[in-house]
Amino acid sequence: MTGHLVVVHPTAEVLAEATAARLLTRILDVQSVRSPVHVVATGGTVGIRTLAAVAANPVRDAVDWSQVHVWWGDERFLPPGHADRNETQARDALLDALDLLPAENVHAMPAAVGDLDPEGAANLYASELAEHATDGAPVPEFDVTLLGMGPDAHVASLFPGHEALRATGASTVGVHGSPKPPAERVSLTFEAIQASREVWVVAAGAEKAGAVAAALGGAPRDEAPAAGATGTSRTLWLLDAAASSEL
Ligand SMILES: O=C1O[C@H](COP(=O)(O)O)[C@@H](O)[C@H](O)[C@H]1O
């Protein structure tokens, strides 16, 4: 597919290590020309494994973490600190180890507290995104957006055939009835994702091979949401051999 670079690594372990190294290099490259750097983190198996690999990579000490903002592509709408929250897993894998990353630069999506519902959480997050954007844009121009992908080709919490896929005029959306637990989630919309300079879809495992082939083979994004995950300057598909086996 035009404009997409597909990189295949032999195993999920190498994929996570290589993506971590690539992410650190991307942050350093951006910091050589501008600050702050806006990074969108993902949940999911290979996404969290990648963050753990960043934590273990000595190059992390070359980054000026005081000038990095961390956002999320989606969140499972659960109570604060819940083990299944993408935020909790990212903090455990990496963020808590970054002493120089200011707490106010970690922009977790709101957790399920009190009367807050996914729509309310989405609205709060949209306001936070807008506060850090420039020129009246709804979101910062993300330097890199990492997206894991499910076997159904979902990215963030945008699931095939789901109404959240069709959200327009908003940067975030509350999600109900997710086919993957938990049912309630908060997600960036396609509009927000597509405002990223670079989008990296990261996937490992044979169970993802059909979804990879569909998304890269021209399936509509309503059927294969990952097909709509594109960046303004670059879109990377970072795969292990098993996930690429149907290409
Ligand atoms: O629930 C989610 O799933 C996807 C993919 O997860 P994986 O374990 O199949 O890699 C993830 O990208 C998303 O952020 C997360 O909320």
TrEMBL record:
Pfam families from the UniProt entry: Glucosamine_iso
Alphabetic keyword roster: Hydrolase
Family per record: Belongs to the glucosamine/galactosamine-6-phosphate isomerase family. 6-phosphogluconolactonase subfamily.
All copies of domain Glucosamine/galactosamine-6-phosphate isomerase, residue ranges: 11-237
GO BP: any one term: pentose-phosphate shunt
Signal sequence, start to end: none
InterPro entries with a match to the protein in the record: 6-phosphogluconolactonase_DevB, 6PGL, Glc/Gal-6P_isomerase, NagB/RpiA_transferase-like
Pathway assigned to this chain's UniProt record: Carbohydrate degradation; pentose phosphate pathway; D-ribulose 5-phosphate from D-glucose 6-phosphate (oxidative stage): step 2/3
EC code(s) of this entry: 3.1.1.31
Swiss-Prot/TrEMBL catalytic activity: 6-phospho-D-glucono-1,5-lactone + H2O = 6-phospho-D-gluconate + H(+)
Any one GO molecular-function label of the UniProt entry: 6-phosphogluconolactonase activity
The protein's name in its UniProt record: 6-phosphogluconolactonase
Primary enzyme class: hydrolase
Gene: pgl
Hydrolase among keywords: yes
Biological function: Hydrolysis of 6-phosphogluconolactone to 6-phosphogluconate.
Domain of life: Bacteria
